[in-house]
Each structure stands twice: as C-alpha cells, then as structure tokens.
C-alpha cells in the first residue's frame, strides 16, 4: 500500500529512471533491473520509515451508512449543479466539522507537547501514475460543500497536471485517503506525520442488517481511522467515527456555511 504523504516539490519530474540493467540485485543476488527513485519517492520512503518508527499508531474501523450521501448527490445532479460534489467532497466537509468537535484529532505531537491547530486543513490523497500527492483544502471547516467541491476539482486537476505549488501540498492537519473508487472495501492507512490521524475510506456497498426485527438493505462504507496513540485513544477514535457517521447521515447541513462560534462572532 502506498502511503499518504506530501511531495516536496510538485514541479520536479517524479518518474523513477533505470540506472543499471541486468545487474545482480543487492539482496537476493538475482538478475534484476535496478531503479533509482525520484527525489519525491525517496522523500515518501523516509516519511514512512519515520511514521513506523516514531508513531505508536492504532486503527479503528466502522461501517457508516451512506444513504444520505447518495440521496444528496442525486438531488444535486438533478439541479444541473457543476461541479456536483463527489463522495470525497462530502466526506471532507463532514470530517472538517467533526474535527471541530474533536480538536485533538486536529493536533500534532512535538517536543513532548500537544499542538492544537487553529485551522482545519484537510489533505486529500491523489494517486498519480508513479506517486501519491496530498493537496490541501485549507480551512475546510469554514467552507460550504459547493466551495469544497470547487476547491478539490482545482487541486486534483493541478495534481494530475503536476502544476501544484509547494504551498498547496503542505500545511495539512488531517488526511483523507479514499480508495472506494477502486473497489477496495477497507485498508489501514499510515498516519502522515506529524498529524494525529488519517481516515481511510472504502467502497460503498449494499449491506443487509436486521432493524427492529426487519431485514433491510442499506448502502454502507467502511471507514478506517489510524491514529497516533500519544494524542488520542481508542474511545476517542470510536466517538470520532460515531460523530462522523451522524453528520454523513444528514449531509444537507454541509450545504450551508458553518455557524460561527461566539468567539468568531465577536471578532
């Protein structure tokens, strides 16, 4: 599994190039092609080593009903709105508001201190042919769903064209990786240091369940939350996913601008 980390320079050529052919591989001794990773790929490798060696991570998973998400998207498609918010866009909006309710998930651990970030900046994993980059939706908790959709379209287009600026690939306080469009049911994402957590999303599928003695079929998706145990604990993660599920069951609230806190209203 590729990890969700930020590339150091979006303008560089990230394609790995063969440097020697028909040589003996350093580990197995077999004949193989040796390939030199690009600078971005080397950066990813270092960050993954850092994540595994420095972060005591744990993972919790929950099935979340997606009926409300599907119904909202269908309704928005009928209004000929462009762009129609994607499933990922709705998850970004719901996650941003959940992060406001659970600020420790929007934090970092540095120099034996908890760093609680004021801004909610959500990174979205975008797969390229040879790399995974994570452009950032800044202040996602302050954006309407329409604004998030417009932002992500621009970021994804920039990522694929490799024209994103370094500032657009940094500053994230939380990461979302959605592999549902590839048919993946669930996976365990790797925490993107120094963030507190990363959310992995699988495909939405019809599930049967017994409700009040009646067998019903509902669309559900597996959400997998990997966390830094120095910052949050298992019960915290469980409550986070529970709250996220509640927002996703009533996603219409994401269409409106988030209400300001009392402190923001007084500014």
Gyration radius, to the nearest Å? 20 Å
Average pLDDT works out at 87
From N to C, what is the helix and strand string?
EEHEHHEEEEEEHEEEHH
Any idea what the shape is? globular
Strands ordered across the widest β-sheet: 3-12-11-10-6-9
Count of individual helical segments: 6
Strand-residue fraction? 25-35%
* Helix content bin: 25-40%
Tell me the structural class: alpha+beta
> How far is the first residue's CA from the last residue's CA?
45 Å
Number of strands: 12
Uncertain residue ranges: 1-15, 17-22
Give a quick account of the main beta sheet: strands, pairing sense, barrel closure.
Answer: 6 strands, mixed
Question: In words, what does this structure look like?
Answer:
30% of the residues lie in helices and 28% in strands. Strand 4 and strand 5 form a beta hairpin. The chain is of the alpha+beta class and 267 residues long. It has helices at 39-54, 67-78, 87-101, 145-161, 234-249, 262-265; strands at residues 17-24, 31-36, 57-65, 107-110, 113-116, 122-124, 126-127, 132-133, 136-137, 174-178, 197-211, 214-228. Mean pLDDT is 87; it is low at 1-15 and 17-22. The chain starts with 16 loop residues before the first strand and ends with a helix.
């Amino acid at each position: 599994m590729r990890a969700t980390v930020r590339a150091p320079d979006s303008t560089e050529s990230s394609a790995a190039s063969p440097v020697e052919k028909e040589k003996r591989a350093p580990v197995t001794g077999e004949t193989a092609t040796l390939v030199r990773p690009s600078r971005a790929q080397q950066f990813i490798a270092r960050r993954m080593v850092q994540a595994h060696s420095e972060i005591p991570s744990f993972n919790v998973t929950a099935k979340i009903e997606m009926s409300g998400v599907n119904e909202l998207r269908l309704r928005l498609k009928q209004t000929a709105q462009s762009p129609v918010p994607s499933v990922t866009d709705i998850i970004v909006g719901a996650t941003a508001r959940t992060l406001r309710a659970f600020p420790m998930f929007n934090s970092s651990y540095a120099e034996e201190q908890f760093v609680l970030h004021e801004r909610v900046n959500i990174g979205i994993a975008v797969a390229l042919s040879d790399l995974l980059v994570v452009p950032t939706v800044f202040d996602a908790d302050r954006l309407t769903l329409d604004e998030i959709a417009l932002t992500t379209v621009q970021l994804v287009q920039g990522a694929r064209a490799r024209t994103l600026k370094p500032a657009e690939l940094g500053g994230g306080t939380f990461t979302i990786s959605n592999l549902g469009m590839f048919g993946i049911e669930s996976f365990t994402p790797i925490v993107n240091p120094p963030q507190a957590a990363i959310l992995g999303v699988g495909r939405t599928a019809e599930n049967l369940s017994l409700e009040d003695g009646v067998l019903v079929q509902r669309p559900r998706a597996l959400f997998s939350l990997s966390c830094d145990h120095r910052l949050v604990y298992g019960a915290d993660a469980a409550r986070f996913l529970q709250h996220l599920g509640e927002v996703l069951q009533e996603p219409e609230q994401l269409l409106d601008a988030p209400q300001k806190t009392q402190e923001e209203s007084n500014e």
